[in-house]
Each structure stands twice: as C-alpha cells, then as structure tokens.
Amino acid sequence: MNNKQITIQNLEVLLKESIKNHGHLCPGQVLGIRMAILGLNIINIKDPKGKDKKSLIVFVESDRCLTDAIQSVTGCSLGRRTLKFFDYGKVAATFYNIPQNNAIRIIAKEEAKEKAKGYFPSIVDKYKAQTEAYKIMPNEELFETMTVKVKLKPEDMPGKPLKQVKCSACGEYIQDSRETLISESNFCKPCSEGSYYILQQTEKTFFSDTVVHNSQNELIVKSKLWLEIKGEPIFGRGRKQLLLAIAKYGSINKAAKEIQISYKKAWSYITSMEERLGVKLVDRYVGGKDGGGAVLTNEAKEFLRKYEDLEEGINELVNRKFWRIFNV
Hints:
Elements: H1 11-22, H2 27-42, E1 56-60, H3 65-74, E2 83-85, E3 92-97, E4 102-108, H4 112-117, H5 126-136, H6 139-142, E5 143-148, E6 164-166, E7 173-175, E8 180-182, E9 185-187, H7 189-193, H8 209-212, E10 227-229, E11 232-235, H9 237-249, H10 252-258, H11 263-277, E12 282-285, E13 293-296, H12 298-326
Parallel strand pairs: 1-2
Antiparallel strand pairs: 1-3, 3-4, 4-5, 6-7, 8-9, 10-11, 12-13
Helix pairs in contact: 1-2, 1-3, 2-3, 2-5, 9-10, 10-11
C-alpha cells in the first residue's frame, strides 16, 4: 500500500479489508481506520505493510473494534511485536516511527458521538448514524492529538528474544525479561503476581487418591516467613501476632495474655524490634479512666501491611510450586 492509498478517499476500500477480519461494520471500525490514517500521515509512514513495516510500532489502549481496524490498516500485529496492547480501556492509540523517533498519540473525542447525530438526523439507528458520520466528519471533530515520546527497552523491540529464564516456582520458561526477581530467584508473572487461570487437578497424581484426598490424611503444604538482620531473627509470625493483639486491645499486657507470653517477654520483643528496625512501633500512654494503654504507631501499621503483603506473596509461590510438583 503506497502513500496515495492511505487517504480518506480510500476509506471504503480500507473498510472492506477490515470487515473481512473483524466480521462486521460498526462505528469503531470507521473510527479505527480514520485514526490509523491520521496517525500514519502525521509520523510520515507511507507504506506500513511494505517498505515501512519495520519502521512502525502501534500502541493500542483498548481491546475493542477500533483495534482490529488499526491492525488491518497498519499491518501491525502482536506476533511481530509491532502492535503493543495496554489495557487502559481508552479509545486511543499511539503511532511510533522508530527510525525518526517520532510518535503521536490520538484519542477519540467522546463528544463526537453527539456531533455525529447532526450529520444524519434521518437515520434512526444511532450506531448506523455514527458509522456514516464518522466517514465524513473532519479529524478535528473526531480526534485529539498529542505529540509524545515513546520509551522502548531493547527487549520490547521486534526481533528474536534477547534472553530466556526458567521460573523457580512453576518451571516454565520466560522470554523477553518478563520475569520478576525475588530473593535472587526468577519468577514468572503468574507465580509472582497471580494469573487469569487456576491449575486444576489432573488424572495423574504423584500420590494415590487414598493418600492425598483421604479426609483424615489430606496432604497440604505449610510455609513460615521471618525477617532477619545480620542473621538474627527480628520479625515473624509471633511478633506479628503481638502487634495485632496490641492494636486490638490497646494494651501490651492484654496482648501478651492473648498470645500466651509474659508481659516482660512481650516488652523485650517490642524493644528489640524497635532497636533493630530503627523505628518506634508502639506508643504507650498512662493515666485516664482506663489507666493507660498502648497503640501502634503509623510506622508499625505500615510495616505490618508490607509484611502481610510479603507473607501472602510467599504463600502463593509456595502453594503453586507444591501443586506443580506433586500435582495434587
């Protein structure tokens, strides 16, 4: 496709090509083609499916009809790594000329829907009216444009994968630096952040059903997390429970009884944590009708939140590894 073909005059030809892939004609198809025409012209891409195909990357921000139309006009695709999808839920796209380092972001104006009604008032169906109006409305009524800079890492560029690593939890391989590094180990995003799928039990298991799924003898995995400073344990499940009990009762004495330790031991835990962590965790107050008490500082609440996030993440990793290895 040459430059003369990427024009508004050839809209119907481009629409026919796009409908073959998308399956139907709709306002989003017209909008996507108009957006692609505008974007390509602004960044000076004349032949996106020919000589310029290695010069173009398109970033789309929605998984709607518009994206199919943009893909049809530009020839960009996920498999060739020239189409980048960001799930922002916005009717917008950025067109990037790699050699010229020139990019334009184009956003569909929401008010264009209302303006479209005035172009074909005799068409009762609003979607049909929008479809026809979008074919002829000027760019200024359809789109907002902004010149932007695009930062692409080497591993995001088209071409062969630069590296491949193995996930320490599930054992699957990860390409293009998509791994997460935790405690000097590589983890894939499903294992470190959660995934859209849940591993179900298969017919083949490491243990027999009578061993694994017997209600009296079900195999489970347990994990324990603690934090150390220079080899000395400074925070773990017990001290977490102590702080939570202080927050609950407003008293170190009552908190100590709750977790079944002495007041002296509870206070020594608090003192050692504060000294090693370098922050105050518990504020004590005296007097008042209740005879004083204790509250967690904001620093303690934030530390607890981070520890619980870490604890949850570690448990998820351990559980996935357990299920993957034993297939239970």
